Amino acid sequence: MLQSQLFTKTRREAPKDEVAKNAQLLIRAGFVQKEVAGVYDYLPLGLRTLEKINRLIRSEMQKLNATEINMSALQNPDLWQKTGRWDDKSVDVWFKTRLKNESELGLGFTHEEPITSLLKEHIKSYRDLPRAVYQIQTKFRNETRTKSGLIRGREFLMKDLYSFHATRVDQEEFYGKVSKVYQDIFKAVGLGERTYLTFASGGAFSKYSHEFQTLSEAGEDTIYLASDKEIAVNLEVATPEVLNELGLEKEELVPHKSIEVGNIFTLGTRFSSAIGLNYLDSEGKSQPVWMGSYGLGPSRLLGTVAEVLSDEDGLVWPKSIAPFMVYLIVLNSRDEKVMRSARTLYETLEKLGVETLFDDRGLKAGEHFADSDLIGLPYRVVVSEKTLAEEKYELKIRSNGEVNLLDEKALIKLLQN
Ligand code: ATP
Ligand code: MG
Fold first, then answer.
1. In this prediction, what percent of the chain has a pLDDT beyond 70?
2. For 14, which DSSP code?
């Protein structure tokens, strides 16, 4: 893409009403725009990044044989009354709206109820189990605190996966697989080293649930981490009894601020019993379906990567989710030979599938460099009179600042990998 065709402008100053680093950088770099607190628009660079995250998640969901759907955000109160979750006293984040005929609808903050109801039509016997269904869909939550930028939105994207089983044992096995797949996802987006499986509160059907917590000073959660054992416990459940049960000593635990990027949960028969999702077992007896739910926030993930992988100059995208691979800068752009060389390189890279943002705006060198660092693509390539004279290109690696002069062959080889 040509930078001159990108309508978004970068900003030198952070917006005054944003305190979170992730939102400040993403807004300055033109990835997102804020509408009101906790509500963001995705601009071309932000949308590309979000879609890369989603693509990566989809390919991991395939490993679980999960199939994708997309359910409506609008929620029927009757269904939620069956599980006791329509009342604002039991769920404090509902957005609700009124139809012209005075009846109410909710904006979904999660989808256990409608997915359970949907599957009633499609699960009849043990032969129809197990099933795993997911969506990447917009959720709404009337959050009170929205100081964390994309990490806590009032409108946000969630990947919600639900699984349906004949037995508890079958769901436990699937739960383990999801846990592994989630860790692969966090690794792939560059958060692997600082994201920990964390014991958190469970429900009526399992003592614990598990969260995936990414260490960050900007986090709103506190976990106790036993780094040698790679286990963490959420502050909320870290009682002496729990630590004892998990074989952890108080002395080996270090408190850390963290961001919950994912959460896996055994639902048991809570929703199936309330909504009537039953199956006939091999003896023809009706049984409630055993369920699990597994959430992960693509937009929170985007915010978290922006928060923890950035530096004082701007964003630092891992190759796996960067909106483009290369930021191509042309200096002395009025020199026809230089411009022709830059254009040819751009066309070559595009042809080879190396996604390139060609900054053809003809600004001062310092402005190009500042924007390149701020936007944070993995590689910066500079074409100038000087590099042309040496028949080389200048390549800078964003993550470590390393700069090298390479000839075309070496450059292309490196970028294609
Ligand atoms: P939190 O404790 O941070 O409010 P939660 O426990 O309410 O999170 P879940 O209901 O488990 O979150 O939602 C599943 C996933 O959706 C979370 O792990 C997170 O990645 C994402 N998520 C939840 N709430 C938000 C939000 N307000 N903005 C962005 N992402 C969110
Ligand atoms: Mg919440």
1. 100
2. P
Of all ligands present, the nearest one to the C-alpha of 157 is: 1
Report pLDDT for 15: 86
Q: Which of 233, 209, 204, 208 is nearest to 221 (CA)?
A: 233
Ligand 1 center to 297 CA (angstroms):
7
Polymer length of the chain = 417
pLDDT in tens, 274-298: 999 999 999 999 999 999 999 999 9
Tokens 């680093």, located at residue:
21
Residue 161, ligand 1, Cβ within 6 A: no
Please classify residue 313 by burial: count the beta carbons closer than 10 Å to its beta carbon, then call 0-12 exposed, 13-18 middle and 19+ buried.
Answer: middle
Neighbouring residues of 118: CB distance < 8 A, sequence distance ≥ 6: 71
* Ligand 1 site, residue 381, Cβ cutoff 6 A: no
In sequence order, the β-bridge partners of residue 268 are: 291
Give the position, in ligand 1's atom list, of the atom nearest the Cα of 109.
10
Which token pair is 72? 């409506």
Residue type, 265: F
pTM here is 0.97
Report the distance separating Cα 260 and Cα 254, nearest Å.
17
Mutate to test the pocket of ligand 1, among 155, 157, 260, 264 (most ligand atoms within 8 A of CB): 260
Beta-ladder partners of 293: 162, 265
pLDDT in tens, 144-202: 999 999 999 999 999 999 999 999 999 999 999 999 999 999 999 999 999 999 999 99
Kindly give the number of the ligand 1 atom that is closest to the alpha carbon of 160. Answer: 14
Give, for 385, the enclosing helix (H) or strand (E).
Answer: helix 385-389
CA distances 301 to 79, 85, 156, 223, 386, Å, are 30, 27, 11, 18, 40
Nearby residues of 247 by Cβ (< 8 Å), 6 or more positions away: none
Are 329 and 359 within 8 A, CB to CB?
A: yes
28 lines ligand 1 (CB under 6 A): no
Q: Whose CA is nearest to atom 19 of ligand 1?
A: 297
Q: Which ligand is nearest to the CA of 145?
A: 1
Amino acid identity of residue 298, one-letter, is P
What does the block give as tokens for 210? 């598990």
d(CA 44, CA 29): 11
